[in-house]
Amino acid sequence: MKFLHEYRQRKDIERTARQIARITTRPWTIMEVCGGQTHAIVKYGLQQFLPPEITLVHGPGCPVCVTPLEIIDQAIAIASRRDVIFCSFGDMLRVPGSDRDLLAVKAQGGDIRMVYSPLHALEIARQNPTRKVVFFAVGFETTAPANAMAAFLAREKGLRNFSLLVSQFLVPPAIEAISGVADSRVQAYLAAGHVCAVTGFESYHALARRFSVPIVVTGFEPLDILQGVLMCVRQLQCGENRVQNQYARAVERAGNQRAQDMLQQVFAVSAQNWRGVGKIPASGLRLCAAFSELDAGLLFADEKQPACDTSECISGEIMQGRKKPFECPHFGRRCQPQHPLGAPMVSSEGPCAAYYRYRAQVISNDAV
Question: For the residues of 329-342, what is the DSSP string, one character each?
Fold first, then answer.
């Protein structure tokens, strides 16, 4: 990863864009699943390099955006307890719950600590044996191995005051859910390279065949993304639906077997509610029975209340590729990063936050 400048050279980006334009004979809609890819597309203005027939739409690949409201509300309730130290990544602190966010709890005296690793939360638990330490374990397959390792080490070290509030998501079922809708506009997918670095991409072959969609495992630099688009368009123009790996420098077909083994030891696959999308079968991970004593969702079950989502945020339509952020009437007006109406305006990987930050180069003045 040392030579990232090789994937940001304008001449190579423009050459790849010209290749795409030469072979494109009809409109195609391609979804990038990962929020990191969305951020890069908007930051570098990649849509502007593409012919007008190619439309990039944004998928539900931001874990902050899709963490369900009921989990946010439970996190807020747990973090409000005087006997708890609540540990979380920073981007979760400003996600709106039903009536407030975690930062508001912190301002009111809650012991909420921003960490950069679940192992940091584990160390906090070791240093505070008389307090209950809860780590907010959020993410896709990329964060799951580290969260599994934290659970494994907590049990191994006998840290009975440590637990995880789990909100883990799996990408392939989300692709299945989006493709399975009768009026889906998505004709091909850019799969997240870092997810596939963990899981491999064997499971994507069945999806490509079932829904007749090309799926290209893609990296996160401008040239990566345009090469992924080129590979998708070549397949679409020929009527093919295969899985290809653009990100071969980081992804192997079988993925990281050691990470997968750790996941299988600690987690079990379960149905998962995706904020703005709904419940998707077998699309999440929960702590398995052997680690249930570390499950904060069970340990603090009395803090779980019915969620009340009164937000005017259209995150579901945005994360299913039906609308772009600037098509929301509140974008850049009532909804801004300082005062978000919904989660997509919070995280740097959220499509609304990316569009807001780089709005001058991707959205016309009339749109905002």
Answer: TTBTTTBBTTB-SS
